[in-house]
Amino acid sequence: MRPRHPGAWAAAALLCACAGCGDQGGLESAGPTPTAVGPERLWPTLPSATRAADDYGAGETAVVKGVEVPGGKLRAVDPVTIVRARVAAAPDDYKDIADDVADCPESGHAKKCPVLGGYYRDLTGDGRDDLLVAVRAPHRQAYLQAYTYGGGKLTQIMDDKDAVINVHLAGRSIVVRAAADLSGYEYRTSWSYDGHQKAMLPTRDEILRTGSSDTTDVPSPSRS
Fold first, then answer.
1. How far is CA 140 from each of CA 56, 72, 79, rounded to the nearest angstrom?
2. What is the pTM of this model?
3. Distance between CA 199 and CA 61 in Å, rounded?
4. Average pLDDT over residues 148-169
């Protein structure tokens, strides 16, 4: 089996040559090895920033009040009830969905209810199910929210709004694909729980070429 690493392959070839295996000629030079170049700091006199330029909204949490969690199990609580409580507590943050959420029936099965239901996964690593829920918003946007329960408190640990294409779960990370401002590109953000911040953080955020312009009619997402 060929070694996976080039260094291991070179070492194997050298051992083979020393042992006399094979009847071909000896090793041949591949030319000079390029000199490794380390990171070079630019503008060393530029003063360091003391605060972020924009508020990304990452790391913010909120305790959800007025919602009972029987036995501390989120599966026992209707996701619509949780979203309603969160919207009622911060109406200015959810003006675009407040009326529709208020009209949702229990369990959110009505056609016009924007709450898409919940997925239960251990996002925090404490061995208990947390709740991930999506809420449709106008202009093909969506809120992605995550909730955890511990210490007698129901806490929102993620609240992201974007022009979502789709969402995947990779281990305990939430990977969000969203429409980008540039035609033929998309944003891909991986959210993971941070034990120090006690919240989901965008641990990887990138823009990728897709080669498709299918999302050109989707409004440019807000990255704030």
1. 20, 34, 21
2. 0.74
3. 6
4. 96
